[in-house]
Amino acid sequence: METRIRRAGILFALPWIIGLLAFYAYPLFSSMYYSLTNYNVISPSQWIGFENYITLFNDDLFWKGLKNTLAYALMQVPLAIMFGVTLAMLLNLPVFGQGFLRTVFFLPSLLPVIATTILWQWLLNPQFGLVNAFLEKIGITGPGWLGDTTWSKPSLVIMTLWVLGNSILIYLAGLQDISKDYYEAADIDGANWLQKTFHITIPLLTPVIFFNMIMGVIHALQEFTLPYALTYGTGNPAESLLFYSMYLYNNAFLYMKMGYASAMAWILFVVVMLITVVLLKSSGKWVFYQGDD
């Protein structure tokens, strides 16, 4: 009887197991192998050992792509957390039209990335864009935005801050999970809203902040669609928007250097893992859970 149940369980799990092996395990180990070969998809792969990795560390575009990606992540992730938490706290207030306001802030995350890109290219156009036109009305000369190497990455960050709907939704869930007993006790002690925010809300929201931080870092380090659509894969101006994943894509599908691209993918995996481990190790010092002593 137990053998029959075990066989039935394996049979029901078989489609998932096959999918895992075919679409995850096989590509994973294949990329590991190809990273040690000279492979252009068309011809058979040639074993070259760690030559791809050695070449990468001497590749200026590799370092530029990595530098651009890390700089973007350092700007985007903290700002996304700050704006996401602030908006979620405002949308959690019991005001008239709360559901409508939540819908309005969530809708941008449903828009296609290409459509969003075209919209922001128009808004941030340095000559006739609405943003610079507004700045001019208040006596400020607008920057070149996407055409300026200094402002190109901040422009990209601004675009991503417009689509925080998913993270706001998670923050809202975290806010509603905080017990009202904490606030009632604080009211009895005479705490004001600022004290309650920094001593109750934010500390008890840190598990959700930590989750969004991890996901945000992983997403930022793999940012591809937005900069690729903005620059048509060139990374201009002056390669200031040449992100790591874009250079990886170009090597794999434009230059047909699949082995080289596989090596880049594994380096990115190691970087993401190292940052994730550091964040996990540090979480014990600043992440608090309800019920902790």
TrEMBL record:
- TM stretches of this protein: 9-29, 70-91, 103-123, 155-174, 202-221, 258-280
Keyword Membrane among record annotations: yes
Q: Is Membrane a UniProt keyword of this protein?
A: yes
* Keyword annotations from UniProtKB, A to Z: Cell membrane, Membrane, Transmembrane, Transmembrane helix, Transport
Primary localisation category: membrane
Cell compartments where the protein resides? Cell membrane
Q: Which InterPro entries does the record match to this protein?
A: ABC_transporter_permease, MetI-like, MetI-like_sf
Q: How does it sit in the membrane?
A: Multi-pass membrane protein
Family matches, as Pfam families:
BPD_transp_1 (PF00528)
Please report the stretch or stretches of sequence annotated as the ABC transmembrane type-1 domain.
Answer: 66-279
The UniProt entry's sequence similarity note says: Belongs to the binding-protein-dependent transport system permease family.
- Write down what this protein is called: Sugar ABC transporter permease
